[in-house]
Known about the structure:
By secondary structure, this protein is an alpha/beta fold. It has helices spanning 57-64, 87-97, 113-118, 131-141, 157-169, 187-202, 214-220; strands at residues 13-26, 29-42, 46-50, 72-77, 80-81, 98-102, 175-179, 206-210, 223-228, 231-232, 238-239. The longest helix is centred in the C-terminal third of the chain and has 16 residues, at 187-202.
Amino acid sequence: MVELEKNPPQDDIVVRAENVCRDYEVGDMTIKVLRNVDLLVRKGEFLAIMGPSGSGKSTLMNMIGCLDRPTCGAVYVMGKNVNRISDSELAKLRGMEIGFVFQSFNLVSRLSALENVELPTYANRRPGIDVRGKARELLDLVGLSERMDYKPTELSGGQSQRVAIARALVNNPSIILADEPTGNLDSKTGEEIMNIFTDLHRRGRTVIMITHDLQLANKYADRVVYLKDGVIDDRATKVNAA
């Protein structure tokens, strides 16, 4: 098994999953989606999570993203056990520490690019922060300084994903979660988006990405974790060369 050190410094770990299970009740049936998953994610790591459809990738991402809680075991995000904090504390942790980038962009069609980037700050407003200025700065960072006033319907897929990345960064999160971020993009645009993630990683961001693309995972991620039938396949999990 390829793994991190047995006892890494605790302040170096941003996500820790211990013996995590997730079951769903469907009628009289219990569907076991995750089974005894253990995972550590270091600060500043670029981790890719791979696996076939139904392997539990999105469920694990939901656990890490504080969108769901495990049936058994424990998930710690920035040192906090997501099972032991209130819903309001969980929402605050999710809003302040995690930035989400989705395959389908999830932009609000009636808002401009600038307004979409500002959106996550409404629930988690930091005192003394110039939100409009921060949003402009981030759109400039992703190469959309001339498209700030455009609505999603006036943007290409690649431009929309750049807006989504800027939106994910607006609260200065510790972790970026990207679920198939290039899945709806052509190869050239997908490479441009991955170059943005690479730049964020070089700046010290922790990036956790779900992908079906092995070549993409091997090219950009520090480490690749494979899920199969709700468990981590230790034989396939590997650390990529620097």
